Amino acid sequence: MISISLCMIVKDEEKILERCLKSVGDLVDEIIIVDTGSTDNTKKTAYKFNSKVFDFKWIDDFSAARNFAFSKAAKEYILWLDADDVLLEEDRQKLKELKETLDTSIDSVNMIYNYAFDKNGNVILSFRRNRLVKRVNNFKWYGAVHEYLGVHGKIIDSDIHITHKREKFSGNRNLKIYESRLKKGEELSARDIYYYANELYDHKKHDRAIEYYIKFLNRKDGWVEDKIAACGKISDSYYFTKNIEAAKKYCYKSFEYAMPRAEFCCKLGFCFLSQNKLNEAVFWYELATKLKKPDNCWGFLDDSSWTWLPHIQLCVCYHKLGDKDLSYKHNEIARSYNPDDKNILNNKKYFQSLGYE
């Protein structure tokens, strides 16, 4: 059986840290908590779990804080989490089994991060991250913001899910860090340009976000999954600014980097639907339903686009086209994926009033 150090960086997390540590504390052999300036009872909560607590002066650099936390670990493997992450019971059992059976020649284990959910609790955004790494390899974190852990060697894909339960938002903290770096004349890497564009997008600065996304796409370096995601964000930004043709253009551009994905088929369907081009909308939504979700994809996947979303949109399209049978059929398929959705249930009642079961 391997031994595990849990390493976390925190600040003012007294409301949620206990929830996280309750879900994983008994599965690890050591808890390292690095506090970056809490003014609440975060440290007191950490001590309840026999954590080793260290202070680290915040220098607008997440990698620096995470590397400091890793440097304090003493066990064979390091697991990292954020305070708003938890392991559900099924995943606790999977981690327990992994701990008991992991081949010590493995350098890193990646896990699925269920990052965002709809109002019914369905996962709408998930991706993989390296979560458990061999300590003696001295793997490092890179990037002041939206940091990543550089790993190499023998890496395995696990079916363990980390569940993100966000309680608060970072506000404009990350945006300020990037803009401070630009003001100092620092040259941003391709990855930084992409994530700076994301911050601009999140703050609804769409024109400037488009500018930086395009800068990123024009570079020869940069991760292909980020290129695909950038196409999606550009498309959304153009849609928000009512430039539908440009929105379509960047959906098509995503096909230069990989086979068509359901997310982009749904975006194209929505663009055509907004123009009342129903047959074209049907084409793209139907295509979305026929695609196979990529296995072990490290990029951001919108799970709804691969399940119920294209079907509920096909329900709308076929109803507008006058084909109530197909409209009903696709609402039922959508309901099989998302049985508690209010709109789908309202559609169900409507179809029942027409004599459908």
Automatic annotation (TrEMBL):
Domain Glycosyltransferase 2-like, chain residue ranges per copy: 5-138
Annotated Pfam families: Glycos_transf_2, TPR_8
Originating organism: Clostridium aestuarii
Name used for this protein in its record: Glycosyltransferase family 2 protein
Family annotation (SMART domains): TPR
Stored InterPro entries: Glyco_trans_2-like, Nucleotide-diphossugar_trans, TPR-like_helical_dom_sf, TPR_rpt
Gene3D superfamilies listed in its UniProt record: Spore Coat Polysaccharide Biosynthesis Protein SpsA, Chain A, Tetratricopeptide repeat domain
